[in-house]
Amino acid sequence: MKINQSFLKAIIKRSCFAPFIFLFLLLIIFCIYSYFFPIPTEGFSGHVGIGSDILNIGDRDFYLSSFLKDSNQSNVKPSFLYPSILQLIKVFVSIFGYDELSKFWNILVIGLASCLSIISLFLIDDIAFQLFGKRVATISSWLYVVCPFTIFFAISGSLTPYVLLGTNLSFWIILKSMILNKKEFRKLLSLKFSLINKGK
To answer: Could you tell me the residue ranges of all domains in the chain?
Structure first.
């Protein structure tokens, strides 16, 4: 019980607590809304949200075809991780008599992408806090949360939350491992930004 209370206090004290609550509520609202009213995407590429008949995860045929067909009529193959996750979810829902066109599959794919988006928020907050302090961490967290693509890619169950998590996690591990001195790293960032500005 004490561990749960201390964990809760640690979360509440974080600079990303308010953005976390906001993001969590937005995800819940969009998931409930999209269950009844799937959100259309550009062109004829389907819908996003739990209620989608065919969830538009972005290049759906490309990621699912390696499992659904012997060949996707292309020499280009996707990396193993994302298609494997989709396949595991497909196998899991098939136990209950559902397939990758069901709302159950949509819920699991969107739920996982949403969880990864929330984990990315905590990583972004911690990275910004470690490098620049609480104010920058708060601003970074809010920028991530209010970006429309954060919600869109979460409720589409696309590859993007996985890529973002991988990038943030890699950066966080490097930061925590003390491979780079924080002061030197800040100087390096300042130098890069100044070179970018001079280039303009």
So the answer is: 2-199
